[in-house]
Structures are given as C-alpha cells and as structure tokens.
Amino acid sequence: MTRTGSASSNPDTVSGREEEQDRKRERESLYVTIQQAARRCGVSSKTIQRAIQAGILPARYPKPNRCEIAISDLECIRPGHVSGHDPELLEQRVVALEVRVQQLEHLIVELLDRPVAPKRQSRAKARERTTGPLPRQFVSLLVFAERHCVAEARVRSHAEMGLLPVKRGEWTDTDGPVVILALDAKGRHAFYRLYHGVPPFIECDLCPHDYQDSVSGHG
After folding, report:
1. Is residue 82 included in any domain, yes or no?
2. Region label for 88, one of left (φ > 0), alpha (ψ between -120 and 50) or beta (otherwise)
3. pLDDT digits over 82-138, tens only?
4. Does residue 134 sit in the same domain as residue 66?
5. Which of 5, 29, 126, 182 yields a CA-CA distance of 20 to 30 A from 101?
6. Are 131 and 171 in contact (CB under 8 A)?
7. For residue 164, what is the DSSP state?
8. CA separation for the pair 109, 88 (Å, rounded)
9. Using an 8 Å Cβ cutoff, are 201 and 146 in contact?
C-alpha cells in the first residue's frame, strides 16, 4: 500500500514543480532590463538609472551584473516625469528660459550694432598696463564668475566670442595667481546683464554693477 501511495503522489509532485516553473517564468516575463525599460518609456538608459538611484523607480538585482524593473512600475514613467518634477512647472521654466534667450539675443544685437569709437591715444590708455600687479580697477574674470556661480567654460567661450568686454594681459593678483582675463567696470556691468536671471546665477552685494561700482568690493 505504501508503494501504491508513493506512486500515486509522483504525478502530483511533477505537476506541482511544473506549475512552480510556469509561475517563475511568468514572474520573470513581468520584469525588463534597464535598456528594455528605456525603450518602453521612450527615454534614455541613463534616465532610468537616475530614477533607480533616486529611489523613484524600484529595481531588483537577481545577479550582480543584472538589474531588472517590474513592468508594472513603469506605468507611471513617461518622458519628462522621471525626474519627479511637475510637468506644468517644467513647462513654465522652459517658457521663462525662452524669454530669457530672446532677451539675450536682443542684447547681442544691440552690442553688435553699437558704433565703434575711433581709437585715440589717451592718457588712460597710455597708463593701462598688461603686466605686473592686477590694476585696482580690474577684477579677475574667473574669480568674478565663480563669485556669481557662472561656469568658467561659459565665460571663457563668451569672452572669445566678444560677448564679454574683457581686458587681456598677464597680471599677478594680490593672492598670487596669474590673471590673463579681467573685467573693468564696463565689463562687470555687461557680465551682470548677460547672466543675471539665468540659473544658477547668484547676485552679490554690488549687483547690478553699474559703471560706478568699486573694485574694493570684489577683492
């Protein structure tokens, strides 16, 4: 009788194993890789990775080098939603930036349309040095940019394009560094007009840097 009972239970055991394997395959089919998730959501793989790192998107790691995301968790992921920001707020920021770009374009046109004053040898020009200690009326462009949270690469590029009226030379600042690009009062005011209102710009106590501002505040 014991053998008969054991034999009769074998089909049930096999059937149970098959059902468990079917359930396992079904569970696995409900998960996708990072690349597959990106294609489903219409975003890049890096966007999915950032969402996982930020805790916005749950993920599992069945193997050390394999990351999987449940398809059900992708339902709330859409282009523009992964960052966690309100789409309306993002649209408002885009509109504000577009307005700012238009203002900058008008400013560039105004600067390019200004008549070039004839060069003349004035006493001020004669006294303007390009070596030695940094003149008191100048401030290092890179120091000024760092103080206002503007990227060094951006100000260098705009200086080369002629959008920033910079002074060129090879001076030594008070704390030792060599300065090759500097701003006078006119340059500081142009810097403010070009970058203020564009994140992450930070105003200082002397903004908006009109033509009478003092270099002593920029030390």
Report:
1. no
2. alpha
3. 555 556 666 777 778 888 888 888 888 888 877 766 666 555 555 678 898 999 899
4. no
5. 182
6. yes
7. S
8. 32
9. no
Q: Do 35 and 92 lie in a common domain? A: no
Same domain, 39 and 69: yes
For the chain, what is the domain count? 2
In a domain, 173, yes or no: yes
Distances (CA, A) of 199 to 35, 45, 153: 32, 26, 15
Tens digit of each residue's pLDDT (9 = 90 or more) over 16-67: 677 676 666 655 568 999 999 888 888 888 888 888 888 888 999 988 888 9
d(CA 87, CA 106): 29
| Same domain, yes or no: 104 and 181 | yes
Domain of residue 61, CATH code: 1.10.10
Enter the pTM of the model. 0.44
Handedness of CA 131, 135, 137, 140 (dihedral sign): positive
Place of tokens 């290092």: 140
Domain membership of residue 14 as a residue range: 2-74
β-bridge pairing 60-63 and 131-133: unpaired
Residues 207 and 147 occupy one common structural domain? yes
